[in-house]
Amino acid sequence: SSDVCSSDLYRAATQEFLAEARAVPAEQLDRTPPEGWSARQIIHHMADSETQSYSRIRRLLAEPSPTIQGYDEEAWAHCSTLGYTELPVEVSLRVFEAVREASAGLIDRMTPADLEKSGTHTERGTITIAHWLDMYTRHPREHAQQLNHALHGKF
Question: Is-above-0.85 flag for pTM?
Fold first, then answer.
């Protein structure tokens, strides 16, 4: 149920990020703090992060003790073929929204026992579904704040 598994908080985090991302004027997408990513880079990162998340929760639910592969976020952000610095953000926003909504539906169906299911993350060690839920509820909120800083920060 959503009470047990916090799908309301997860959905609120989705909406918080989308609201911040959609508030960035086109001419501000590439404003970059001295240390950090531009709004464009953050939005593309979130689409890629959430597709990883989408896969991870399904593996944790369906497979016994899966290996969850980490990835180098900075390498992805700087891979020119992935286009973090120049591609339009609209597709990435739609990807983010779609995979978050699909995963929210899974959260609605999870039981308390599901929260204890676990796998091994290649960089973080043991990860439970409860940990996954906490991490991916916080992640969009953290990046919403980062977007706000990229847009309004004094630098």
Answer: yes
